[in-house]
Amino acid sequence: MSDVVDMTGGCGCGAVRYRIDAPPIFVNNCHCTLYQRQTGSTSVVNAFLESEALTLLEGVLGEHVVKAGSGGDHVICRCTVCGTAMWSFYPRLGRLGLGLRVGTLDDPGQLRPDAVIFVAHKMPWTALPADIPHFETTYNPAELLPPERFSRLKVLIERRAAGEG
User: What are the domain boundaries of the chain?
Assistant: First the structure.
């Protein structure tokens, strides 16, 4: 994964613009059936980071609530003009962390997934990159992420457990 910071992005129509000021904690390419339905695609690539690392520069977002795999609320934030999904808040981290849709970055190729997950549900014709770890379902972040990134995730989980977000 890249350590690039100060990345920018926006929606399909240009009404929403944002900047992120920290490298993601982790990036996943997820092939779960929920994402397939929610995106109308074969998978989604999300970059997870602390919410305070993202600044909305312009535009208005609407929130749409769907169920996450855990059964909790998964809030998808979309441009109110064109409907592009920009990022999501997930039950485990609440509003403390978010999953940014990597495809909304101005240069989405600067982020590389740390893992490909839920490959048990991938389309049979989808090829997996040989140099990115892939998992039938999910993985243990402590075993995959570098210590400095895992510690950032741990802080968010501890804050959420303490009632924040």
Answer: 7-161
Sign of CA dihedral 32, 145, 105, 99: positive
Q: What is the pLDDT of residues 112-133, one digit of tens each?
A: 999 999 999 999 999 999 999 9
C-beta neighbour count of 42 within 10 angstroms: 14
Contact (CB, 8 A) for 105 and 111: yes
Give domain 7-161's CATH number out of 3.90.1150.10, 3.90.550.10, 1.20.120.1770, 2.170.150.70: 2.170.150.70
Work out the burial of residue 37: count CB atoms within 10 Å of its CB; fewer than 13 is exposed, 13-18 middle, 19 or more buried.
Answer: exposed
- Whether the CB-CB separation of 25 and 50 falls below 8 Å is answered with yes
Single pTM value for the model:
0.92
Ramachandran category for residue 6: left, alpha or beta (phi over 0 → left; psi -120 to 50 → alpha): left
The single residue listed with the structure tokens 């779960």 is 32
